[in-house]
UniProtKB/TrEMBL annotation:
This is Transcriptional regulator. Residues 4-51 form the HTH lacI-type domain. The keyword DNA-binding applies. GO terms for molecular function: DNA-binding transcription factor activity; transcription cis-regulatory region binding. PROSITE patterns: HTH_LACI_2. The lineage of its organism: Bacteria, Bacillati, Bacillota, Bacilli, Bacillales. InterPro entries: HTH_LacI, LacI/GalR-like_sensor, Lambda_DNA-bd_dom_sf, Peripla_BP_I. Keywords: DNA-binding, Transcription, Transcription regulation.
Amino acid sequence: MLQKKANVSKMTVSRVINHPDQVSDELKQLVYQAMEVLEYVPNYAARALVQNRTQVVKFLILEEIDTVEPYYMNLLTGISRELDKHSYSLQLVTQKSKNIGPYDGLIVTGMRDQEIDKVLAGLEKPVIAYGENKRNIDAIDVDNRLGTELATKHLYDIGFRHIIFFGINLLEEEFMRSRLTGYSSVMKAHDLIEESYFMKNSSRIAEKKALDILQNTKKPTAIVCASDRMAIGAVRAATALHMNFGENIAVTGFDGVFLDRISSPKITTVRSPVIEMGETCAQLLLKKINEGGAQQGSILFPPKLIIRGSTVVGRE
């Protein structure tokens, strides 16, 4: 009935349902329209049994949750939204529990370079990493270098020449090196002196460091922060010193998922399309599962600079 309504073969219908990546968009649209008209619901349980699938994807977070919230809620929204389209369930697991129970694939985030071998040990299922890495592991991330380039160039364009970088003390990690490189490239291009500090991803620690610096300089100063959490601390320090944002102080953040909007003033930030990145992460993993674990490569998403009151006078 379904193949007649869509005017395609049984094989095409089967491919659309079981291997949509192998079918053209035009054919998929024909079958999907027929499914909607006939109110057809595929028997995913039967399909999973035939294909020896569990319809389960595991998500492993290897970071302290309190330092990355609410970032991961947005990421999980994107991942679960895409998995739901394919009747997959999502399980959150720890390093110790990642091999407990059957599953079809694993998404790993917060994986540090020195931990990669330990994390991947014993894994026989397809893996996608969320975050840049230098080990040729299939991954999704934002273009970290471009993000800090945009932020630093913005600060230069509005007149700041004393521009400092606040980084997370994970310089051995690819994403942090990329963010530092973005800042450094703009500073070098304009023959400016680089000044970088690395610390825990904490608003309190960033606030203390910013106070120390700002109290001991009379120059208009801008701070490029590697996270919105750190930017909140820098904004608090400048506010405590009664500095004027956009005039003798400017602060940028990175992520743009919530914390940038609760600051006063709101923070100019490098926004990552986290929900879209989560969806693509799930798509890449499902494609890898369907292709028997074949290498998928890595994708970097372009960030967007959101300009607000922490850098420009008169903005919210």
